[in-house]
Write a structure and sequence with these properties.
By secondary structure, this protein is α+β, with helices and mostly antiparallel strands. It folds into three domains: 290 residues, no CATH class; 113 residues, no CATH class; 60 residues, Arc Repressor Mutant, subunit A (Orthogonal Bundle). It is 39% helix and 19% strand. It contains 15 helices and 16 strands. α2 runs antiparallel to α3 and α12 packs across α14. The protein is elongated, with a radius of gyration of 30 Å. Bound molecules: zinc ion. Zinc ion binds next to loops. The site of zinc ion has 8 residues, from loops.
Length: 480
Amino acid sequence: MTQYEPVIGLEIHAELMTNSKMFCSCKVVDSVTAPPNTAVCPVCLGMPGMLPVINRKAVEYALRVALALNCQIQAHNIFARKNYFYPDLPKAYQISQYELPLGVNGWLDVELEDGTSKRIGIRRVHMEEDTGKLTHLEGGGSLVDYNRSGVPLLEIVSEPDIRSGEEARAYAMKIRQILRYLGVNAGDLEKGVFRVEPNISIRPMGSTEFGTRTELKNLNSFKSLADGTAFELARQAEVLDGGGQVVQETRGWHDTKRITFSQRVKEEAEDYRYFPEPDLPPLHISDAWVAQVRASLPELPDAKVARYQTDYGLSEYDARVLTEEQAVANWFEAVPPTAPPKTIANWIINDLFRLMNEHKQAIDDIQVTPVMLGELLELVQKQTINNSTAVDVLNEMFVSGQMAKTIVEAKGLAQISDESALAGLIEQVLDENPDSVAQYLAGKDKLRGWFVGQVMKASRGKANPGLVNKVLVQALEKRR
Ligand SMILES: [Zn+2]
């Protein structure tokens, strides 16, 4: 059997979260919940004689993405007509960019599962408009909803630098993360506002020529992207090993059968008869505008991760977890420094995430605020409560929204840090366990931990463990 090298490029389509559509003033509405064909006008319905006007906000959003993906920005932009016939396309052409896209020659560093990082080239970032949406009825016939027709759409095309389904997933997830940081796309695959289509081919290891590629569609999750790509790579290898040839085509991913199937033979670019859009002037993007948009970009995930490591001394792993979502990163940064950053990070990653998971709440929905966590950790730092009590208090805060101090006072949870109070408890435990005391005094040192446990239990978890240890040793020695 021949060894093959996978060659994968990704096309990502992302709707831009502008208020209005790309070339008309219709509102951008939720394509799942809005009543069909209620956000439409003669322009986005493709009525003859209607003229499109470019949405400046959409261009700015596209510019943000192109800059964040390290692209060169082309000052001279041309819109083109991509001609094809399909009922979801009322004009019978889509306004897109072809020869002169907004951004070219970008790149993105992607972290892989083995802990390494890989740079994926970005060939182009261009602007276009979305199509309408077809619903095929079971008994035959189809319904069309043009609410989505003309919604600003960004296409991000990678170089064929991707070598596995897992790399494809890591790359797509990172793009989605950046778009969310930039506030231009919600990243919802199931609603179709973020769509990923890999171009997949294989070639004999060592060869520099490209094999025939297939394009994969209907991927509605990152898992489907990874699995569908892996399936398609294996299928192509089987075809070639059997002496056959890969057919250039579009294939669909069947989410329940977990296989790909032929949808249609792939069009070549020339089939679309691209030509410059005569109804739109060339779009000039000034250096000043580029500089202004560049200056307005938020701190992006990689920069945040680097800063968390240098400024807060966090591990790369912790920094990645905290910055995966911008809202979580903002939350973390808003916690008052009542405890070391590493401690704050641990409390968020372990305890807060556990609670959010259990209650199915996002960080924006929870009652606990960064200030409230800071106050809780201050009580731990001051040894008013110990760590395990603090976990219980946080659980309570999460449900009731009360401040840590209020809960500690109401429930009498303050730690017993008073030596004389502890000494009483310890004497009581020692009196109740004369055999263990004897064994300890005979040299069985390991029993000390057991005694600490008994005292903690007797205090219902409120004893200060460090102090217990100190007073316990003294009490045991007195009995020698
Ligand atoms: Zn419209």
